[in-house]
Amino acid sequence: MPFRTALSGLNASSAELRVIGNNVANASTTGFKESRAEFADIFATSNLGVTANAIGTGVRVSSVSQQFTQGNVEFTDNNLDLAINGQGFFMLNDNGVNVYSRAGQFGVDRDGYVVNNQQQQLTIFQSDQNGNITGATGPLQLDRSDIAPQASTQIGVGANLDASLSAPATAPLDPTDATSYNNSTSLTVYDSLGSPHLATLYFVKSATPNQWDAHLYVDGNPQGGANTIEFTSSGGIDTTTFPGTYTIGGINPGTGAATMSLDLDFTGTTQYGSPFNVSQLAQDGFATGRLSGIDISEAGVITSRFTNGQSRTLGQIAVATFNNSQGLRQLGDTSWAETFDSGAPLVGAPGAGAAGLIESGALEGSNVDLTEQLVGMITAQRNFQANAQVITTADTITQTIINIR
Asked: pLDDT 10s per residue in the chain (405 long)?
């Protein structure tokens, strides 16, 4: 009887419509991957198998397979929004169980962990205290504590001292009298408590040719005596008589911090016949810093930025790939679990092997093509109508046979 054959066609068309309806409903779901209904024909068999001229008995849904093609990457204003450009999945810790997702809508919970809307924690490769990425995996937790200050220990000076100048008219040096020195420059240095101090260098041309004296003042107080800088006749540092660096110790910051010692490095200083200018002036200390932001590179390296200009590497995002992504089991909430068919996850850094790169401040949209789905919907509807017509026709034939007298 053709009734069961046509009924299997109705069920198959109905299943295809459900798959299409689910795809259409999730056309705007971040990280969603569309599904496709796949069918197989049915033949009645016996112990001898299917005969060569056997008539089929219908159709069945053989599989509903997911299509893990790339969705469109759309940029946002939140740098904790993440997208994978290429293959792979984010690893998420769901109360001790690993799940996998392409949806990168992340935020921070009250304990500082980076989580998604289901409170699943983002898994990363952890870093050590020196910021080196290790092979150990764990959740990403943002440390909001202040970064400790670092006392200044070195000042690097790159300047040109005008060779055409004469020695100052007034001696000795008096910072309040501009006629007692030729040039000056200042920068901020920090003590062990992170308190800032104004360090000023005064340059005084000596009566001896190719010789200058540099005087260091911290917060207006002289530190050490004159530091003589000698140049060659070509304007460079005379390394035969001048080491290039002076160490000024015993500096009392006056804040209860430890006594400071500063190395004055003048190796980048020259004496040419051009006006005084400073091309380099740097020191290695910094004040206390508060967390000001998070940066994530396309390689997945997570760096925290602080208000004192310092940064700290927190880790690297772990990306999982599978030999058979279609073997993953859907869990809902745009997440999947590994199965025997998918194989074990291959966990690595973004960009390594088959793993895609990370786009920070972006989200991967659904890969559903609405036009394609609407065309498929029309096709499934026509198939449903055709199978219904088969049942109507078979019923008419049956009724005709019954009415034969």
From this structure: 677 887 888 888 899 999 999 999 999 999 999 999 988 888 876 656 556 667 778 888 998 999 999 999 999 989 999 999 999 999 999 999 999 999 999 999 999 999 999 999 999 999 988 889 998 999 999 888 888 899 999 999 999 999 999 999 898 999 999 999 999 999 999 999 999 999 999 999 999 999 999 999 999 999 988 999 999 999 999 988 887 889 999 999 988 899 999 999 998 899 999 999 999 999 999 999 998 889 999 999 999 999 988 888 999 999 999 999 999 999 999 999 999 999 999 999 999 988 999 999 999 999 999 999 999 999 998 988 988 888 888 778 888 888 886
What 3 state SS string does 322-353 have?
Answer: CCCHHHCEEEECCEEECCCCCCCCEEECCCCC
Measure the N-to-C terminal CA separation of the chain; round to a whole number of Å. Answer: 22
Q: Beta strand 154-160 with 260-265: parallel, antiparallel or unpaired?
A: parallel
Sequence letter at residue 275: P
Q: What residue ranges do the domains of the chain occupy?
A: 2-69+366-402, 79-144+293-364, 154-283
Give, for 372, the enclosing helix (H) or strand (E).
Answer: helix 370-402
Tell me the CA distances in angstroms from 324 to 89, 318, 327, 329, 366, one per residue in order.
13, 19, 6, 11, 20
The CA distance from 282 to 403, in Å, is: 106
Tokens for 151?
């006392």
The candidate with the shortest Cα–Cα distance to 70, out of 359, 270, 376, 374, is 359
Phi, psi at 48, each rounded to 5°: -90, 0
Helix axes 2-25, 370-402, angle to 10 degrees: 160
- Closest Cα to residue 328, out of 315, 341, 309, 312? 341
Yes or no: say if 103 and 73 are a contact pair by the CB < 8 Å rule. no
Q: Which CATH superfamily is domain 154-283 in?
A: Flagellar hook protein FlgE (2.60.98.20)
Residue 15 CB burial class (10 angstroms; 0-12, 13-18, ≥19): middle
Question: pTM, whole model, 2 decimals?
Answer: 0.78
**Angle (CA) 338 342 344, round 5°:** 65
Helical (H) or strand (E) element with 31: none
Torsion sign, CA atoms 223, 224, 226, 227: negative
Q: 90 near 104, Cβ under 8 Å?
A: yes
